Amino acid sequence: MTRVVVDVMPKPEILDPQGKAVTGSLQRLGYQGLTVRQGKRFEITVEGELTDERIDQIRDAAEKLLANTVIESFDVRVEES
């Protein structure tokens, strides 16, 4: 089995209130110079052979379901187990 990871992040021009809140909390705790952008991570387990067609299916699913492509971007990568 192979694991495919889809990372979804707000686009740079989109405000990220959760990331801003975490950044502020880190600064109050003394962690200066850190800026957080908060996103989502999806781990997809693929049974059988991981083909280019299967990767294309996962990209399609990410675009249609996992990410709101108006305000988010996503990256698909393979993690060998």
From TrEMBL:
GO terms assigned for molecular function: ATP binding; phosphoribosylformylglycinamidine synthase activity
Key word Ligase present: yes
Main location class: cytoplasm
Keyword Ligase: yes
Keyword terms, alphabetized: ATP-binding, Cytoplasm, Ligase, Nucleotide-binding, Purine biosynthesis
GO biological process per UniProt: 'de novo' IMP biosynthetic process
Catalytic activity: N(2)-formyl-N(1)-(5-phospho-beta-D-ribosyl)glycinamide + L-glutamine + ATP + H2O = 2-formamido-N(1)-(5-O-phospho-beta-D-ribosyl)acetamidine + L-glutamate + ADP + phosphate + H(+)
Domain of life: Bacteria
HAMAP family xref list: PurS
Family listed: Belongs to the PurS family.
UniProt protein name: Phosphoribosylformylglycinamidine synthase subunit PurS
Organism annotation: Brooklawnia propionicigenes
Lineage of source species: Bacteria, Bacillati, Actinomycetota, Actinomycetes, Propionibacteriales
